[in-house]
């Protein structure tokens, strides 16, 4: 046995990689198999080792064990080609990185070796290992810097001044509760397996599906860009204050315009730094966190030192005093920042302080172990920063007055606290740089504010392009919307176009230059993100799919649901108008993805719930007795490949659409492999999806046609949702095909009757099988927008081959065409297809029309129903369903029935009219046929004799059978004459299918009867129910 097949990777020293810290145990040593060290490695380790091209040192003990096991494994490999369980067989990365994979069932069971694609890197290029971060530098520091942002240095004192100490603690508590529960939910999700790049978007899209995941992902990416602009504005306001205090410098007006100019310059620097990649951005973050920590320490030291000058006291900083705690304990909402403040307006300004909890998750693709780093780093960041915010708020409230004049003269006079409407511009109400005033060394606090705002701006700025890159790679949205900016450049594949887009987006919000207004806008964006994250955790834990096995256990689905509802409620309490706009944007992006129907399969919880609901519904149906009012025509259509007989599929779907189940059956006489089966079914479903046909496909191989059809009728479906109608195309070549093929077709019809299902046969004069014309053409191009494309390939064997004959051209009964109404003037059809044949040339228009005939809107005409025998009502029900379709709305039903003589015409008409009225079937005309018993014309008999004469000559049909069935033959010939007289110009003819008794009627005789009824007619549907009622007039 080949070693490569057994081991799953190339042998030799270069690939014998082992960590020296891992010691083999009985549990990790496969019996009789050499040590496979890749099974113990993570994907990053293996890629790193391969990229390095070197070996790791192997311990002496391990070397000895490997040598002994190698001798034992040599014998085992000669006995089996089984593969040992390894990580390589469960990861797409491994399948690209290793040369061997798990053997297929065919290789194990049938010794069929399938060719496997050669191993290669992505896009055939050598992959350069990217810089990976641990939980501290990748998540903890990044999250803390994002949370310790502009709100800490510029707004926490303002918040406590308005809300008071106890309400500030409530605001911090609510924000912490929301972020903490969201972190628990996120931790549960990310520990349920490896996650890719995209962080928040990735986990939501893989649980809630591409529609919700994509819409929230887009909003979250935009929110990060706006958050970057928020912190840039905060940086600029701090810089302006520094310029005023240390030199009195301004650029234009010292206000909004200066903020815009400085913000633009700083945004360019942020863009340039982030464009270098996450490596340099992370190094900058680590330097900034040191500055930030020193600044916070400086603040606390200054609070204990107390005011260092009269100016500090004149501005409201008095040091720790009990009366200040009492004064600032309760809220003091006033008109501030252009509006009357309240609890929720203050909360809206503060909440962006906690939105940085997802900064680490946003770069999950750059983390060494996201499943471990994200929970640990996020939870510790929330705990530490929430405590620090609460302490800073209490310190500000315990040391400063809410209002002060800031005048030293007033301080000396003792009037610095006597504030009027306009003379107090300092104190915690008005001084956003209060932390600088309290700090032991003011300039160091400015440095801390610069570090906090710049670090948050960097982290938020780099998150937006990363998210957009992942969303664009998933191709959920049109290329012009997202895809154009996702191309990676350089070794690290940085999305520079996405960086550029983020730059202009953030710059647009920087030009607003209003910190509180920007904070209000992004609060809703992050709240909706948190709401969906919590709902995703709730939903997947409620559904409990088998794959839901998170290693993080400290979460509760009901707590996640409560938090999701709380987030939505807070959105509307802050500003219901902004909340409605946010939800409208979410639904806009949701419907874009829903309309595009991206070809993705991520195993979402929605899919799991759909499976569970479907199973529950089917199980409930098993306990309900069937009732005629709930009858639904579930069809098994023998289409072969649906792309080979599109007209047959379209006609069957006319009946099943929104009503019942359609199964496209394919019987292949030859033996097929699992791979071939999968490819055939995949192409079949692709055709159904492209044509918006909601149906199923089933395939059976290595059997003849009747046996395969019998098996499908017996096992297709589940529970009571099973096919109850066998729908087949008419065998146009029955006169020239071999006798065995004809007998199988005839036997297939008997199978339907024997299994007590209805049988329907559709005939169009040109035939239904166009695989010979279209060849392997995979797509049919529509000439106008809105046209429904089709696609076909060669039909696999299994259903009767239909040759395109012109019918019986010498028929004395006329030469009716299939589309008689096409010659009449009328509105031009919307459907105008241009199909390409196997030679690459455009097919003639008449062939295109034949292929797509049942997709187009029918011109005004009739559907003639020849209800000759009571089969339970199926002959009447199917045309009625067709008449209710929009494309057939212009066609009215005409019902034909028979009477034995002229004396019973009125009685029969009244009886049939009463029956149709009770069935609530709308019809335009009711015609009673009285001369069915008349003998047919001699020319008709001669024509029929011409049909069966070759079979009599070949002794496939006996004279005895012919003479014994002469009466039935005459009846069918006479019926043929009547049908031609009345229905040659109809859009569709539906007639009760005659039944051939077993052993009494041969295949040639039965097919001659059907040929007699349907030759040279419009589309003709022969239907026979199973003699069980499908219509009722009871309520």
Task: Walk me through the topology.
Blueprint: H1 3-7, H2 43-52, H3 60-77, H4 92-97, H5 105-109, H6 135-147, H7 150-154, H8 156-190, H9 200-208, H10 210-245, H11 256-275, H12 278-305, H13 310-314, H14 322-327, E1 335-336, E2 339-340, H15 343-350, H16 359-362, H17 370-399, H18 408-413, H19 434-438, H20 442-473, H21 496-510, H22 515-543, H23 557-574, H24 576-596, H25 605-621, E3 635-638, H26 646-656, E4 662-668, H27 674-690, E5 696-701, H28 705-715, E6 725-729, H29 739-754, E7 758-763, H30 771-774, H31 845-851, E8 861-866, H32 874-883, E9 891-898, H33 905-919, E10 925-929, H34 938-953, H35 959-964, H36 966-983, E11 988-992, H37 1003-1014, E12 1020-1024
Parallel strand pairs: 3-4, 3-6, 4-5, 6-7, 8-9, 8-11, 9-10, 11-12
Antiparallel strand pairs: 1-2, 7-12
Domain Amino acid permease/ SLC12A: 138-636
Biased composition (Basic and acidic residues): 1-10
GO molecular function, one term: sodium:potassium:chloride symporter activity
Summarize the structure.
The protein has 1035 residues and is mainly alpha-helical. The protein is built from 37 helices and 12 strands.
Describe this structure in words.
Residues 138-636 form the Amino acid permease/ SLC12A domain. Its main location: membrane. This is Bumetanide-sensitive na-k-cl cotransport protein. Residues 1-22, 781-833 are annotated as: Disordered. InterPro entries: AA-permease/SLC12A_dom, SLC12_C, SLC12A_fam. The protein starts with a helix and ends in an 11-residue tail after the last strand. Residues 1-59, 72-78, 93-99, 118-127 and 776-833 have low confidence and may be disordered. It is built from 37 helices and 12 strands. 45% of the residues are buried. Helices cover 51% and strands 6% of the residues. The protein has 1035 residues and is mainly alpha-helical. Strand 1 (335-336) and strand 2 form a beta hairpin. The radius of gyration is 39 Å and the shape is elongated. The longest helix has 36 residues, at 210-245.
């Amino acid at each position: 046995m080949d070693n490569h097949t057994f081991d799953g990777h190339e042998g030799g020293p270069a690939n014998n990689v082992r960590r020296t810290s891992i010691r083999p145990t009985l549990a990790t040593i496969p019996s009789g198999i050499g040590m496979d060290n890749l099974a113990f490695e993570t994907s990053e380790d293996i890629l790193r080792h391969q990229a390095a091209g070197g070996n790791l040192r192997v311990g002496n003990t391990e070397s000895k064990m490997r040598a002994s096991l190698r001798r034992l494994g040599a014998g085992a490999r000669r006995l089996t080609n089984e593969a040992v369980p390894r990580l390589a067989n469960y990861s797409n990365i491994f399948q690209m990185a290793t040369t061997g994979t798990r053997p297929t069932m065919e290789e194990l069971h049938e010794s069929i070796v399938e060719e496997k694609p050669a191993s290669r890197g992505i896009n055939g290029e050598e992959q350069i290992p990217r810089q990976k971060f641990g939980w501290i530098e990748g998540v903890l520091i990044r999250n803390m810097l994002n949370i310790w942002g502009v709100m800490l240095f510029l707004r926490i004192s303002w918040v406590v001044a308005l809300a008071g100490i106890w309400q500030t603690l409530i605001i911090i508590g609510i924000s912490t509760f929301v972020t903490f529960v969201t972190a628990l939910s996120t931790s549960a999700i990310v520990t349920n397996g490896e996650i890719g790049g995209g962080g928040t978007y990735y986990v939501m899209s893989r649980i809630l599906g591409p529609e919700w995941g994509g819409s929230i992902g887009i909003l979250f990416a935009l929110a990060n860009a706006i958050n970057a602009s928020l912190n840039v504005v905060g940086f600029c306001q701090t810089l302006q204050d520094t310029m005023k205090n240390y030199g009195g410098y301004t650029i234009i007006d010292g206000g909004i315009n200066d903020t815009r100019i400085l913000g633009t310059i700083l945004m360019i620097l942020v863009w340039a730094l982030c464009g270098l990649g996450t490596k340099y951005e992370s190094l900058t973050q680590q330097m900034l966190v040191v500055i930030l920590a020193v600044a916070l320490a400086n603040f606390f030291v200054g609070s204990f030192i107390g005011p260092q000058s009269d100016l500090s006291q004149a501005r409201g900083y008095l040091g720790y005093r009990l009366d200040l705690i009492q004064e600032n304990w309760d809220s003091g909402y006033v008109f501030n920042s252009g509006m009357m403040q309240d609890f929720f307006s203050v909360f809206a300004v503060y909440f962006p302080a906690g939105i940085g909890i997802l900064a680490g998750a946003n770069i999950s693709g750059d983390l060494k172990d996201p499943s471990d780093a994200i929970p640990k780093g996020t939870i510790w960041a929330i705990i530490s920063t929430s405590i620090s915010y609460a302490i800073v708020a209490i310190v500000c409230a315990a040391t400063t007055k809410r209002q002060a004049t800031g005048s030293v003269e007033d301080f000396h006079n003792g009037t610095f606290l006597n504030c009027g409407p306009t003379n107090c511009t300092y104190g915690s109400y008005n001084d956003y740089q209060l932390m600088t005033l309290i700090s032991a060394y003011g300039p160091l606090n400015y440095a801390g504010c610069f570090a906090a705002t710049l670090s948050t701006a960097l982290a938020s700025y780099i998150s937006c392009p990363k998210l957009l890159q992942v969303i664009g790679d998933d191709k959920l949205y049109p290329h012009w919307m997202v895809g154009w900016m996702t191309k990676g450049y350089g070794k690290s594949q940085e999305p520079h176009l996405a960086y550029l887009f983020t730059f202009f987006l953030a710059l647009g919000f920087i030009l607003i230059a209003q910190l509180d207004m920007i904070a209000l806008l992004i609060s809703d964006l992050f709240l909706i993100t948190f709401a969906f994250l919590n709902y995703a955790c709730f939903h997947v834990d409620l559904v409990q799919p088998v794959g839901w096995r998170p290693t993080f256990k400290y979460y509760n689905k009901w707590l996640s649901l409560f938090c999701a509802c709380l987030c939505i409620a807070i959105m509307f309490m802050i500003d219901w108008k902004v909340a409605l706009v946010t939800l409208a944007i979410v639904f806009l992006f949701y419907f874009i993805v829903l309309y595009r129907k991206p070809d993705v399969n991520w195993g979402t919880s929605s899919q799991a719930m759909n499976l569970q609901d479907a199973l529950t519904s089917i199980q409930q149906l098993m306990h309900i007795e069937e009732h005629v009012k709930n009858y639904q025509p579930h069809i098994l259509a023998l289409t072969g490949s649906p792309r080979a007989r599109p007209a047959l599929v379209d006609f069957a779907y006319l009946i099943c659409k929104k009503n019942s189940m359609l199964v496209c059956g394919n019987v292949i006489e030859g033996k097929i492999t699992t791979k071939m089966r999968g490819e055939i079914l995949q192409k079949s479903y692709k055709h159904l999806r492209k044509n918006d046909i909601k149906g199923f496909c089933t395939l059976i191989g290595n059997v003849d046609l009747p046996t395969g059809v019998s098996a499908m009728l017996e096992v297709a479906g589940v529970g009571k949702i099973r096919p109850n109608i066998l729908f087949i195309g008419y065998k146009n070549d029955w006169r020239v095909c071999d006798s065995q093929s004809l007998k199988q077709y005839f036997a297939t019809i008997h199978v339907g009757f024997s299994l007590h299902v209805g049988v329907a046969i559709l005939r169009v004069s040109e035939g239904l099988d166009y695989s010979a014309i279209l060849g392997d053409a995979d797509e049919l191009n529509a000439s106008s927008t809105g046209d429904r494309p089709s696609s076909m390939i060669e039909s696999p064997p299994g259903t009767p081959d239909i040759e395109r004959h012109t019918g019986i051209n010498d028929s004395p009964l006329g030469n009716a065409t299939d589309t008689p109404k096409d010659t009449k003037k009328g509105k031009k059809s919307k459907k105008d297809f241009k199909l390409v044949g196997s030679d690459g040339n455009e097919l003639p228009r008449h062939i295109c029309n034949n292929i797509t005939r049942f997709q187009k809107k029918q011109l005004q005409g009739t559907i003639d129903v020849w209800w000759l025998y009571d089969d339970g009502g199926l002959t009447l029900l199917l045309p009625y369903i067709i008449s209710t379709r929009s494309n057939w709305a212009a066609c009215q039903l005409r019902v034909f029935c028979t009477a034995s003589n002229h004396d019973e015409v009125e009685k029969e008409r009244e009886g049939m009219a009463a029956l149709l009225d009770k069935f609530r079937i709308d019809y335009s005309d009711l015609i009673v046929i009285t001369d069915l018993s008349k003998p047919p014309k001699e020319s008709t008999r001669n024509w029929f004799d011409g049909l069966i004469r070759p079979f009599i000559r070949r002794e496939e049909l006996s004279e005895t059978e012919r003479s014994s069935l002469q009466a039935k033959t005459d009846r069918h010939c006479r019926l043929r004459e009547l049908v031609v007289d009345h229905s040659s110009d109809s859009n569709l003819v539906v007639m009760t299918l005659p039944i051939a008794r077993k052993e009494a009627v041969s295949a040639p005789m039965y097919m001659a009867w059907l040929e007699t009824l349907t030759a040279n007619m419009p589309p003709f549907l022969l239907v026979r129910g199973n003699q069980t009622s499908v219509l009722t007039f009871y309520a």
